[in-house]
Amino acid sequence: MSVSRRLFLQTAYGVGLSYAAFSLIGKSGAYSANAGLPLIADPNGLLDLPEGFSYTLVSETGGMMSDGFFRPGRPDGMACFADETDPDKCILTRNHEMWPDTIEGSPYGEDGALAERFAHGKLYDRKADGRPFLGGVTNVVYDVKNKKLERDYLTLAGTTGNCAGGATPWGSWLSCEESAILPADGANKSHGFVFEVPANAQGPVDATPLKAMGRFAHEAAAIDPDTDIVYLTEDNMTGLFYRFVPRRRKELGRGGKLQALMIKEQRSADTRNWPRDWDSGGAGAFSIGESYEVQWVDLEDVESPAGDLAARGYAAGAARFCRGEGMAYGRHPDDERGSIYFNCTQGGALRAGQVWRYQPSAFEGRRRERNAPGTLALVYESDSSDKLDMCDNLAFAPWGDLILCEDGPGDQYLRGLAPDGRLYDIAHNAHEAKSEFCGACFSPDGKVLFVNIQEPGFTLAIEGPWETMRG
User: Fold this and answer.
1) Considering the chain, what is the average pLDDT of its residues?
2) Which of 209, 248, 234 has its CA nearest to residue 322?
3) Residue 4 belongs to a domain
4) Do residues 198 and 172 lie in contact, with contact meaning Cβ atoms separated by under 8 Å?
């Protein structure tokens, strides 16, 4: 898909690229819970923050958007881009994780009547009974200077389970379907694909699936701007870590090669670190800080309706990861190349979460990488759900740390992970629904952290003295 204007995502490709630093932590495994600044209870019962920080409610599910449709429910993955028309504004591309059986939060109203007003030919798919699938993307124009929503509107519709995704260096959002429903399941088309939405889209885009990027439970995407190779996570207990090498840079729709990561000398490795009686390789099989050289396995029949891509890849030698979810690209100013960081939500001996780093080869995607392969390393594994509980979406902070969105069964926190392994609290979801944090991303100037609370459906903008955040 061509994009007419170049827009920059701050955390990966704009301002943050110059100082998004994160290094491998030590092997000691000793981490302090709740380091940093104490959180102060929000009198409004929504978001607890450190002293000196504040939040603005950008939007809430259910209100009418500027295009005449209702704001969809279950906001999830998100990215922030500069608005080239106004330096005081930014553009959020926001997923809505609406599943085939989701009823509440429809953009077309409770009776679905507004669906007939949607742009002809732009809706990707409808259910067998004619009702549209409710997942998709909304673009949000936010006035950072005046702290107010300028407008928001549907840009992708008729998809399902749009969980996370990723920003491209050329100014678009890759929205990933986690639901891989088929016509046999009540759809008219196959699902489980990636779709591209320009950040500067002014309305609905053509919903064209990027099928060469595979059909599976897609979660997140991250692009290395040095190569335009796309890395993909899979939200599956026995999922793989993928890369898509495009045939032509910046034109993903022209196809390419899909591959899965394999650890050299460890065919069909199990990285989950679960105890052996949980059908895994054993707790501690992969140690924090150890670096492993990798190879890439070519995958065939990547859009198979059988849904067996991960199983076939694993049988061919690819490594297994437990619920790969959030992912981000980042580069230290002193590093020759950047790295891809990703979360495995239920990886680890306690199933409480892992954070991994993939450092691409200097010859990534080319023949010479055989002699200088990329490397994989486990940079964090939670040893207590009180410290980190099921990390989901992931982002980079301007001060060089990782931002981790929790999606556990109890209270939900937005955590920071420092290069030395310290975890600290950034925010606590004080709302009674105790829903997950998702979609964390920074404004182009690095001053505002945007984040979603999925239920009942809030998009928030957080500001404060970020230089003090670590304590």
Assistant:
1) 91
2) 234
3) no
4) yes
**What pLDDT does 398 receive?**
86
- Tell me, yes or no, whether 9 lies in a domain: no
Low-confidence ranges of the chain (pLDDT < 50): 1-32
In a domain, 317, yes or no: yes
Domain count of the chain? 1
Shortest CA distance to 412 belongs to which of 118, 107, 47, 31? 47
The full 3-state SS of the chain, as one line of letters, equals CCCCCCCCECCCCCHHHHCCCCCCCCCCCCCCCCECCCEECCCCCCEEEECCCEEEEEEECCCECCCCCECCCCEEEEEEEECCCCCCEEEEEEEECCCCCCCCCCCCCCCCHHHHHCCCCCCCCEECCCCECCEEEEEEEEECCCCEEEEEEEEEEEECCEEEEEECCCCEEEEEECCCCCHHHCECCCCCCEEEEECCCCCCCCCCCCHHHCCCCEEEEEEECCCCEEEEEECCCCECEEEEEECCCCCHHHCEEEEEEEECCECCCECCCCCHHHCCCCCCCCCECCEEEEEEEECCCCCCCCCCHHHHHHHCCCCEECCEEEEEEECCCCCCCCEEEEEECCCCCCCCCEEEEEECCCCCCCHHHHCCCCEEEEEEECCCCCCCCCEEEEEECCCCCEEEEECCCCCCEEEEECCCCCEEEEEEECCCCCCCEEEEEECCCCCCEEEEECCCCEEEEEECCHHHCCC
Look at residue 174 in the predicted model and tell me its pLDDT. 98
> What is the reported pTM?
0.93
CATH assignment at residue 292 = 2.120.10.30
Quick: pLDDT tens for 400-443.
899 999 999 999 999 999 888 899 999 999 999 999 999 999 99
Is residue 206 included in any domain, yes or no?
Answer: yes
**Domain range holding 308?**
15-468
Residue-wise pLDDT for 247-304, tens only, equals 999 999 999 999 999 999 999 999 999 998 887 778 889 999 999 999 999 999 999 9
